[in-house]
Design a protein that fits this description.
The chain is α+β, with helices and mostly antiparallel strands. The chain has one domain. Helix content is about 30%, strand content about 25%. The chain has a seven-stranded antiparallel beta sheet, with helices on both faces. The chain has a two-stranded antiparallel ribbon with strand order 1-2. Strand 5 and strand 6 form a beta hairpin. The longest helix is centred in the middle third of the chain and has 13 residues.
Length: about 220
């Protein structure tokens, strides 16, 4: 069990969860809970989502207290899977972007490059992609809080991670008024974006913490 599963009021919290709480401060959130993840049946996941998880070498293990909910098509941003709390207006959406195809194209073009050609390393675009997603979701570009590298490696098996709090556009969020976005990146594997959506700031941190480590990269 990761050390960030325990989040107590007035207790020092390090790593991504501490930085998440700091980023969430515009919503005046409180942190108070002892939270434990339960298993989530893998055979309940849609094949499109599990295929992306496999290509990105990721695992998904969400609490069984949450239920899947239909994807709502939007022009703002695509996502492949969503879950929600049955008795709360709180939803979590997941967007997985494997880099396997990008690396194949990169290596192919690398052997065919001519003078003046540009061949972008797939591992060099994760930050600009995250910024584009933030703009599409909110129309703004606030500062990204980057996670501590050692902690994000330990807790998500990722090479980089960051988070930002925004007021989302209605096109993406529908009735939700608050949004926290978390991004994870791992070299040669891909990126993941998690959108935490709520109607109210009350209990936001508690709801996020329950599923904060549900998605992570495999240890290879």
């Amino acid at each position: 069990m990761m050390h960030l599963f325990l989040v107590l009021r007035n207790t020092e919290v390090n790593g991504p969860m501490k930085q998440f709480t700091k980023a969430a401060s515009p919503f005046t959130l409180s942190v108070a809970a002892i939270l434990v993840l339960a298993s989530f049946a893998a055979n309940n996941l849609p094949k499109t989502f599990t295929n992306l998880l496999s290509r990105a070498d990721m695992v998904f293990d969400a609490p069984d207290s949450l239920a899947s909910t239909p994807i709502i098509p939007t022009h703002a941003i695509s996502y492949e899977y969503a879950i929600l709390y049955p008795h709360k207006n709180f939803e979590i959406r997941y967007d997985i972007k494997p880099s396997d195809n990008a690396w194949k194209e990169y290596e192919l073009h690398k052997s065919e490059m001519k003078k003046g050609d540009i061949n972008t390393n797939p591992d060099s675009t994760f930050l600009s992609t995250f910024q584009t997603i933030i703009l599409n979701v909110s129309g703004t570009l606030p500062n990204i809080t980057e996670f501590d590298k050692a902690s994000v490696k330990q807790e998500f098996n990722a090479d980089w991670g960051g988070t930002v709090a925004v007021v989302p556009r209605k096109e993406f969020a529908q009735h939700y008024k608050y949004c926290m976005i978390v991004a994870l990146h791992k070299s040669h594997q891909g990126d993941a974006y998690i959108f935490y959506l709520a109607d109210s700031p009350e209990g936001f941190n508690e709801s996020v913490t329950t599923v904060f480590h549900a998605l992570k990269f495999k240890t290879l």
